[in-house]
């Protein structure tokens, strides 16, 4: 089942100045159509309290709600899909567990990982890090523009149509060059929710990508 995947994914994060709910409110008011709720610090009751409010906001604005990990919450709230950060996760089993209707995205920092995600029926992939990022620190090599160009070319050669999004340290100044690589879209967090004016930052991303 082919899903609609938005070209700009906004990812919430634990930050001092804004709650996850406030981040979603601002993003949706600015026109966001894809929200990824990424909270790895709360218990299930706290997560569901957040998610239920965020789901209502997303519903009001016509935005898709994706939750990072926490697939055990499937069916307990109005969640359209899940993004799995574990790069060793078995997506074939996850798909069987979640069913075809649920959107399922994954993370990868290698082209081989992208090929595996496509084979195991992921709906999209976040591919990064583009450059150094403080949102989700890791030791993986930076992909860079050439890395995205190479990935796009190899996937095309193999006739793989998996939507791949650049993620990790992306700023609005990078967007034009990233889109020129042929990448499907971009996922962003800190460049938007930690900007001086979050709404304006989101609109800048949106205008350049869409």
From TrEMBL:
Species assigned in the record: Pedobacter ginsengisoli
Protein name as it appears in the record: Thiamine-phosphate synthase
Cofactor remark from the record: Binds 1 Mg(2+) ion per subunit.
Cofactor(s) this protein requires: Mg(2+)
Record domain Thiamine phosphate synthase/TenI: where: 9-192
GO CC entries: cytoplasm
Recorded superkingdom: Bacteria
Pfam families: TMP-TENI
Chain positions recorded as 4-amino-2-methyl-5-(diphosphooxymethyl)pyrimidine binding sites: 107, 136
UniProt catalytic activity: 2-(2-carboxy-4-methylthiazol-5-yl)ethyl phosphate + 4-amino-2-methyl-5-(diphosphooxymethyl)pyrimidine + 2 H(+) = thiamine phosphate + CO2 + diphosphate; 2-[(2R,5Z)-2-carboxy-4-methylthiazol-5(2H)-ylidene]ethyl phosphate + 4-amino-2-methyl-5-(diphosphooxymethyl)pyrimidine + 2 H(+) = thiamine phosphate + CO2 + diphosphate; 4-methyl-5-(2-phosphooxyethyl)-thiazole + 4-amino-2-methyl-5-(diphosphooxymethyl)pyrimidine + H(+) = thiamine phosphate + diphosphate
Residues given in the record as 2-[(2R,5Z)-2-carboxy-4-methylthiazol-5(2H)-ylidene]ethyl phosphate binding sites: 133-135, 169
Single GO MF descriptor: magnesium ion binding
Amino-acid positions noted as binding Mg(2+) in the UniProt annotation, renumbered to this chain: 69, 88
Pathway the protein acts in: Cofactor biosynthesis; thiamine diphosphate biosynthesis; thiamine phosphate from 4-amino-2-methyl-5-diphosphomethylpyrimidine and 4-methyl-5-(2-phosphoethyl)-thiazole: step 1/1
Record keywords: Magnesium, Metal-binding, Thiamine biosynthesis, Transferase
InterPro entries tied to this protein: Aldolase_TIM (IPR013785), ThiamineP_synth_sf (IPR036206), ThiamineP_synth_TenI (IPR022998), TMP_synthase (IPR034291)
